[in-house]
Write a structure and sequence with these properties.
single chain, Rossmann fold, DNA polymerase, domain 1, 10 helices
Length: about 230
């Protein structure tokens, strides 16, 4: 029987695609990119480029080959060079993170699930996001009141899948026994591999029908949040 739930937020409880779409649109508006209709097609192309660049850099973060402070700015430096924009990447990044922090878009079942979990378990969010973004998003969302601790890799200097972030989470929850802890998340390489590295049970939340990666075996897999009630 579990006593502690460690859970990711993006693409697990929160709809990150919606938050990202909102933030990108708003930051380009903030920088007055939408002065002319002719910019719309180029904007759509830039969004695709950004998501590719951002995805590559987040994989590098998981491997430990790039730091979060570097990632924040580098993704826009690469993007602007590729598409020929002259915005200051550091200023743009700062405003983008502000807009992203406003993105508290939850999946339909998330609030009900967190209320249910809060009544039975200690709950800690364990996320690889940026501290300027993730604390605000959780605390200002409808699930914030059900979360006991928020652990952000950018704040403590350890990212999933490294075992240290999970060890830190348990210390924050004042809990020592790994046998009654489970990590729940959407990323096989960060959440599931991280839980395995730390020696705890794992549950892969595959809401977006991702392909399973070889050699990473979660204890459980769910394709809808409602299926978690059968496990917990």
């Amino acid at each position: 029987m579990y006593r502690v739930i460690l859970i990711d937020i993006d693409d697990t409880l929160f709809d990150y695609a919606q938050a990202e779409e909102y933030a990108i649109k708003k930051v380009f508006e903030d920088f007055r990119y939408f002065d002319h209709e002719r910019n719309q097609q180029k904007y759509e192309e830039m969004k695709k480029e950004y998501k590719i660049i951002n995805g590559i850099l987040w994989k590098e973060l998981e491997k430990g080959t790039v730091k979060s402070d570097e990632l924040k700015i580098k993704r826009f430096e690469i993007l602007f060079e590729k598409v020929g924009l002259s915005y200051n990447a550091a200023d743009f990044s700062k405003q983008y993170l502000k807009r992203l922090s406003e993105g508290t878009f939850l999946f339909d079942e998330s609030e009900k699930l967190c209320k249910y979990l809060n009544e039975k378990y200690k709950i800690a969010v364990v996320t690889n996001g940026m501290k300027e973004v993730q604390y605000s998003r959780v605390e200002n969302s409808k699930v914030g009141k059900y979360i006991n601790k928020i652990i952000v890799s950018d704040d403590i200097g350890i990212s999933k899948p490294y075992a240290g972030i999970f060890e830190y989470a348990l210390k924050e929850l004042e809990h020592k026994n790994k046998d009654d802890v489970i990590m729940i998340g959407d990323s096989l390489t960060a959440d599931i591999q991280g839980g395995i590295n730390f020696g705890i049970d794992t549950c892969w939340v595959n809401l977006k029908n991702k392909e399973k990666e070889k050699n990473i075996e979660p204890k459980y897999t769910v394709e809808k949040l409602e299926e978690l009630y059968n496990i917990l």
